[in-house]
């Protein structure tokens, strides 16, 4: 039987864009575009099987070998540091990890800074590099609310167009890291299916604009 590459794609707009790159690279699986609740799509002829996974779970599937390959944001790789290979920058899903606060916020260096975020490790590492004491408040979404309601001084969050900040009267203060979608691979899976993965990587690389 022909070997199959198991690929975890992030559910949603980014996943659809990325799937189009796989398809253009010769790894199509047309059924995937039918609107349905199905999560696994296989094209035996092309040797691929795609899974729709919650974006923040992609690296878990890949790290543990439930998927050979996956696509996830660099934010996830920086936050969770999964033990995977990062093979390719797909140069899509481009955004940045940034610090933002209310426009009139004045930082008092003598007091602990409260930081609301989904990305506790990124925030911790960033402020440690500045030697700044912080108190992290973990939230799961709508992070922009925190400074508006006095829950935190600043937020560390993803900024793409900047509209969410703007519409909530927040200002970007510092950029922590540029973010884009990356192709990642399970380490053992890569050793085992190296030729197939290298071929896919070369073909997908040609679709990167
Ligand atoms: C993300 C991020 C910002 C927003 C940035 O939120 O957390 O809130 O997108 O995009 P923009 O700069 O183009 O406005 P998401 O939509 O993932 O929802 P969340 O509030 O659940 O994090």
Topology at a glance:
Blueprint: E1 5-10, H1 13-24, E2 40-43, E3 48-53, H2 58-63, E4 69-73, H3 74-80, E5 85-89, E6 95-102, E7 113-117, H4 120-130, E8 134-138, H5 145-148, E9 154-159, H6 163-167, E10 170-179, E11 181-185, H7 187-192, H8 194-205
Parallel strand pairs: 1-3, 1-4, 7-8, 7-9
Antiparallel strand pairs: 2-3, 4-11, 5-11, 6-9, 6-10
Bound molecules: 1-O-pyrophosphono-5-O-phosphono-alpha-D-ribofuranose.
1-O-pyrophosphono-5-O-phosphono-alpha-D-ribofuranose binds next to strand 9 and helix 6.
In brief:
With 209 residues, the protein is α/β, with parallel strands linked by helices. It contains eight helices and eleven strands.
Characterise the protein shown here.
- This protein has 209 residues and is of the alpha/beta class.
- It has helices at 13-24, 58-63, 74-80, 120-130, 145-148, 163-167, 187-192, 194-205, and strands at residues 5-10, 40-43, 48-53, 69-73, 85-89, 95-102, 113-117, 134-138, 154-159, 170-179, 181-185.
- The strands form two sheets. Strands 2-3-1-4-11-5 form a six-stranded mixed beta sheet. It has a five-stranded mixed beta sheet with strand order 8-7-9-6-10.
- The chain is elongated, with a radius of gyration of 19 Å.
- It starts with a strand and ends with a helix.
- 1-O-pyrophosphono-5-O-phosphono-alpha-D-ribofuranose (PRP) is lined by residues 141-144, 157-164.
């Amino acid at each position: 039987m022909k070997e199959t590459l198991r690929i975890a794609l992030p559910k949603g707009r980014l996943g659809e864009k990325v799937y189009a790159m796989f398809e253009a690279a010769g790894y199509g699986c047309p059924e995937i575009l039918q609107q349905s609740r199905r999560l696994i799509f296989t094209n035996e002829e092309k040797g691929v099987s795609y899974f729709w996974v919650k974006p923040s779970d992609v690296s878990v599937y890949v790290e543990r070998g439930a998927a050979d390959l996956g696509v996830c944001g660099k934010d996830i790789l920086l936050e969770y540091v999964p033990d995977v290979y990062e093979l390719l920058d797909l140069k899509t899903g481009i955004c940045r990890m940034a610090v933002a606060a209310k426009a009139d916020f004045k930082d008092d260096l003598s007091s602990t800074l409260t930081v609301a975020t989904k990305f506790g490790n990124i925030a911790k590492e960033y402020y440690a590099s500045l030697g700044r004491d912080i108190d992290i408040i973990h939230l799961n979404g709508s992070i922009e609310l925190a400074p508006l309601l006095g829950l935190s001084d600043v937020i560390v969050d993803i900024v793409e167009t900047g509209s969410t900040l703007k519409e909530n009267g927040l200002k970007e203060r510092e950029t922590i890291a540029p973010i884009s979608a990356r192709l990642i691979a399970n380490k053992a899976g890569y050793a085992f299916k190296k030729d197939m993965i290298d071929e896919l990587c070369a073909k997908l690389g040609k679709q990167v604009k």
